Amino acid sequence: MKIGFSILSHKEPDQVYIELVNQLAQYPDYSIAIHHDKSKSAFDATFFKEANIDIVKETVITHWSHVNNIEALLKTFELLYDKNCDWFVTLSANCFPIKRPAQLIDFLKNSTFDGYIECNNVNTDYFDFYQYFRKAFETRMLFQIPFFRKSGKFYWKPIRVKRKKYTNIFKDLYIPYHGSDWFMINRKAMKYILENKKDVKKITEFLRDVNQYPDLNVCPPEVVFQTLLANNKAMNLNNNNYRYIDWTNAVNWHPNNLKEKDYDVISHSEAFFARKFDASLSMSLLEKIKEHILNNINEK
Prior knowledge:
The protein is α/β, with parallel strands linked by helices. It has a domain of 161 residues. 31% of the residues lie in helices and 21% in strands. The protein is built from ten helices and 14 strands. The strands form four sheets. A seven-stranded mixed sheet has the order 3-2-1-4-11-6-12. Strands 5-14-13 form a three-stranded mixed sheet. The chain has a two-stranded antiparallel ribbon with strand order 7-10. Helix 2 packs across helix 6. The longest helix is centred in the N-terminal third of the chain and has 15 residues.
């Protein structure tokens, strides 16, 4: 069974990035596709000369939570699909495996699901902030006016009006779904994505319009593929993406950097990958994971 790893990056390879690719290269049958935003930094592929890597040649400019990331991901998906991968795993340069290759291979070989991808219906209140997603989908901003809160604090108040029904694709065409952009899907699910790139573009362009306004934004990589797959009733999806991410008191929608103190909870996690690792803060944890989990054949 061949596993394909999709990585979007923008920083020059640091020690975490290099260690990640080195670990992925331990899989007996794998491919790695990397989309590196060359506008942000240079990319020296010689760091990864021992790994089986395909680099996306015609890249796009990516940003955190941006619609362009969808195009970048599709480019990596196409490379991996052409390599005849059976399963596809999305990663960042700040991710790291916390299970040995044999454990993930065995898990996926015995899977009865088409994907492990978080898909929550935005039309529910699964998360409180879905009310703002719905408002962003159903309305558009006309302009902003100067306003003072009761506390006396000044701010620009957005004035919004209801979208015309035909301009909101989530009225009739799709039920909107949201979840983590870190997922694992099989070849059946990936084939459906690649054969329906027109639908991917339709959802992406709608979110591009949604995000042009400064007051309400939605992260496209957390909506586009989730919506496409979850609206296909032929897909058997598991809402657990098997990632360990610490959001405890996180700030500005960024997860906490993992440190050595997190080892115990990580070692007992059912997840296969964790994030986020930082080259200046997480190396002792990373080394401990390598020594006690990845290189320990007795670790369950």
